[in-house]
Write a structure and sequence with these properties.
85% helix, mainly alpha
Length: 142
């Protein structure tokens, strides 16, 4: 696999994991604000806490590189709900643009080979990349 692609998946996974983790933590630390926001859409406090807990677990899963496909499926469903229930009426700009981007990122992890998500692949791809360069340099120098 291309080294650039491996690193792109890794960086994307780290950024998505950090975003979901912080959004989940925010739902728990600003509970009153987020409960009011969920209730505006006819949703319960329990659902808000559940979504927050799932975002924390899935974000941590992305960061650790464990059960990424399962986490991505869960987050895809959460983002679909956020788009349809809360953000669609605001339009794309300032409305569902971020949830749509996060939805697309999660879909990428759902539909790609899970081998692309592993840190060991990054290490082996980077090592083979540099070994190939070293081998080419050695061949040209004699």
């Amino acid at each position: 696999m291309n080294v650039s692609r491996v690193w792109a998946f890794f960086i994307l996974r780290m950024i998505a994991g950090a975003i979901f983790l912080t959004h989940g933590i925010d739902k728990w630390f600003r509970m009153d604000y987020n409960t009011a926001m969920f209730e505006n859409y006819g949703l319960t406090r329990e659902l808000m806490l559940s979504v927050g807990a799932l975002e924390i677990l899935a974000g941590f899963s992305f960061l650790k590189g464990m059960a990424i496909k399962i986490a991505a499926v869960v987050l895809t469903l959460i983002m679909a709900g956020a788009i349809v229930i809360a953000r669609f009426s605001f339009g794309l700009i300032g409305g569902y643009d971020l949830p749509l981007a996060m939805f697309a990122i999660c879909l990428l992890f759902v539909f790609t080979n899970k081998r692309n998500h592993s840190f060991s692949l990054i290490l082996s791809s980077t090592r083979s990349f540099y070994q190939n360069i070293f081998h080419k340099v050695r061949k040209t120098n004699g």
